[in-house]
Amino acid sequence: KMEEFLNFTQLKTSVKEAILLDYYTAGFWWAKEMNFSLIQLSGFMDLLNFALENLSDKHLTLGDNLKELERAMSGIGETDSEGRGDLNVFSIEQAKAIIDYLVTSLFKHYKVYEYLFHGRREEPVISNE
After folding, report:
1. H/E element, 122
2. Could you tell me the residue range of the domain that residue 98 belongs to?
3. Which InterPro entries match (predicted)?
């Protein structure tokens, strides 16, 4: 289902798609294990996508992406925050767990993900040899 939702069409031949499918699937199951509600699950998946888009599309450095995460998550636990409204559904404890998850799953491996999105790839050579 996740493959269809992400519209991955080359999963069997694309390492990038396989890695991203694994990343989103692992995040989804982690959130399910945290017993997030549907609204929280949606907000968490949005946050995973937000962090990856900052890296892939905006080419943000690790430090800048961490600052964006801080901005996105600021105001969690406050009643009338002007931050990302969809993230106000998380408690402070849940926000800390989300940050720990992002650090472990994405930010500790940032160079690898940078290479995945921006690394120079050689053209595949197909021959009789």
Report:
1. none
2. 37-76+85-118
3. CLAMP
Q: Confidence band (pLDDT; 50, 70, 90) for 82?
A: very low
* Total domain count, the chain: 1
Among 77, 66, 78, CA closest to 110: 66
As a whole number of angstroms, the distance between CA 80 and CA 78 comes to 6
Using a 10 angstrom Cβ sphere, with 0-12 exposed, 13-18 middle and 19 or more buried, the burial of residue 11 is middle
Domain presence at residue 22: no
Question: Which three-class secondary structure string do you get for 21-52?
Answer: HHHHHHHHHHHHHCCCCHHHHHHHHHHHHHHH
Looking at every residue in the chain, the average pLDDT score rounds to 84
Kindly compute the dihedral angle of the four CA atoms of residues 31, 37, 42, 47, in this order, to the nearest 10 degrees: -50
